[in-house]
Amino acid sequence: MSKAEALPLTEAEVRPCCPPLNERPLTAEEADEAAAMFKALGDPIRLRLFSQVASHVDGEACVCDISDVGVSQPTVSHHLKKLREAGLLTSERRGTWVYYRVTPSVMASLARSFSISG
């Protein structure tokens, strides 16, 4: 089985959830989308899991490599599901293991939300 290689994103492919917070007030839809991401990251276990995936070699982590966060495996699976539902992670099953990646536009979107223009 060959491993697919991720292509780098161009600026045009990054769809931010919302404009920088100091640019203009958020619309209701933008606020809902951003709040879902921030809510998912607001849990310390989910934030640690997200960080482990984002900082893992090649930006991809097997669930077997990120399960040591002080909670049971079913709880880890629950938190990873919440991160996927919030659009922060994607997953792919390979054999018996599931591999996680940060959704490509998420890091740029989160960074852009807090960037200060002018």
How are the strands of the biggest sheet laid out side by side?
Answer: 1-3-2
Q: Tell me, briefly, the overall form.
A: elongated
Radius of gyration: 15 Å
Q: Kindly state the number of beta strands.
A: 3
Keyphrases for this structure?
single chain; Transcriptional regulator; disordered N terminus; transcription regulation; HTH_ArsR_DNA-bd_dom; 118 residues; 5 helices; alpha+beta; three-stranded antiparallel sheet; Arc Repressor Mutant, subunit A
Task: Annotate the secondary structure layout.
Elements: H1 28-41, H2 44-55, E1 60-62, H3 63-66, H4 73-85, E2 89-94, E3 97-102, H5 106-113
Helix pairs in contact: 2-4
Q: What would you say this structure looks like, in words?
A:
- α2 crosses α4.
- The chain has 118 residues and is of the alpha+beta class.
- The termini are far apart.
- 17% of the residues are buried.
- The chain has five helices and three strands; from the N terminus they run ααβααββα.
- Strands 1-3-2 form a three-stranded antiparallel β-sheet.
